[in-house]
Amino acid sequence: MAKDLVYTSFEIVAEKAGDISLAVYKNYFARCPGSKELMTHVDDIVRGRMLDEVYRLMMNEDYSDEESYLNFEVKNHRLAYSVKPDMYGNLLEALKDVIAESLGAEWNDAYELAWQSRIDLFIKEIQNRH
Ligand code: HEM
Predict the structure, then answer these.
(1) Full-prediction pTM beyond 0.70?
(2) pLDDT at 112 over 80
(3) CATH number, domain 5-129
């Protein structure tokens, strides 16, 4: 089976840019109204752990093994942290942006398509639970 391009892009970013979490949150807060306020009390360690889970989920090509994890986190994010459904898409677009920037000239339509379809797939999982 061909290697997943989303996975490949993470590998390249790890080599080229190292830890991208600060850049992802910067991009995210700039594009998503209300998100910064929701996360002001959250320190860098927890922010980092959250993104580790987001990376793990984005590298996943199938969410059937993630049912209970997603049920728990989506409910928790909605009820305990007041996260709105559109905040997920914004976070993933911010991540895609930072990865595209890190890849620079290596980023192409195939990466764009792979990322867009992964985001679409994941957002369907979120919408089913909101
Ligand atoms: C793919 C989507 C997401 C996943 C998998 C995810 C996962 C997580 C995890 C695992 C934690 C706990 C980290 C820890 O304590 O170890 C967390 C915390 C948090 N997340 Fe997310 N998250 C997602 C999206 C979002 C979005 C879109 C927002 C909106 C701003 C958000 C806001 C928060 C907040 C505010 C906390 C900290 C809660 C607290 O400890 O008070 N998350 N997230």
Answers:
(1) yes
(2) yes
(3) 1.10.490.10
